[in-house]
Specification:
The chain has 431 residues and is α+β, with helices and mostly antiparallel strands. It is built from eleven helices and 18 strands.
Length: 431
Amino acid sequence: MSSTEQPPSSREIIKTFRPDLQVYESLYKTIHLNPELSHQESQTAALIVDHLKHLSDEFEIRTNIGGHGLIAILKNEPGKTILLRADMDALPVAERTNLEYASHKRQLGADGKETPVMHACGHDFHVVCLLIAAETLLRARRYWSGTIVFLFQPAEEAGDGALGMVKDGLFDGNRHDCPVPDMVLGQHVAPIRAGIVASKAGPIMSSSDSLGVTIFGRGGHGSMPHRCIDPVVIASHIVVRLQTIVSRVVPPDEVAVITVGSIHAGEAENVICDRAFFTINIRTLSEEVRLLVLDHVRRTIEAECSAGFCEKPPQIEHHMSLPVTANAAPVDDRLRRVFQDYFAQEFIVAPKSSLASEDFSLLASSIGKPYYFWLFGGIDQQKWDSLAAVNKLDTVPINHSPNFAPAIHPTLQTGGDAMTIASLAFLQRLT
């Protein structure tokens, strides 16, 4: 571009260089048909590598980072470095969408048992939208300068994918030669009207803590409860009591959710078992409330076990912890203006935080860098409008549902454009 040439707008760049989306529709269907569970994403990773190599040999590709994670580095003269992230794992869900490209795949889960597998959270969209952005930015490299790291992350659903890549030396120059980014960007398809892009300053997704709890009782014959210590009764008291933490401990203007997702105890109706196991998931939007809830959960469990005369203290294991995903106000100010300018009325400020959780922010916080995360809609526009007209939006299939089936168009374009426009906000040449 000459010094006298007027640079095109971001809108013009995307319109000119956005690739043929029919190619990406086919790629999306292939990935949706072949989902892979967390830590098993080998075929998906190989497909991504093949596609990037077909696009250009300018991508510096590094594979097998923290499992099946990979990066593709695109350098284009001096400038800032940004990292764009897409997760690529699927869920142990049996698909019920009846789509022609519905998954019928089965895999062995972490427990060694065979399970159906489905892209029920939209990670297939994340992968393809990032590849759309990669091709757009590759073709438009005359109009931006800097370095872009396209990162495809495994095991988001397991909660350890981002941290696994970091621990495997993602940003260690001697290991994977990934440049440290100045900004990390990510997005997630959501059960909102297709074409919409939504974000907000502050918490946009909650923290998540998962606990496994074992209550130790004294087993025996069902006819002699006085000779036993029944862990089922004690666990039942704990489950009920935990709900009072939200209603009586957490301030009414704060947000917390406590869910007991599973309980396992006993095998026969005439046997009082000797132990009960249950799992707890905790969602909060601030670190102060998170620590308050975790403390009271522990106290409640220990107190009920003491009241039930357990002969052994409960075993409380912290299985997983994900931080709040919170957009810093200065970054939000900048990218909100960019999104509003490009998407116009299709961009909205998210009215509230989602209580879903993400490990995305760890890619940035692990190196002390800022990040930004947004949502983009996937629900067919006509379906959304018709359900809104009769106040039935609560029936829209949500992420992790076996019926979650985002519309391919315009979802692919929206996600691809959003990643591209956010990248240009930091890298576009102004002269």
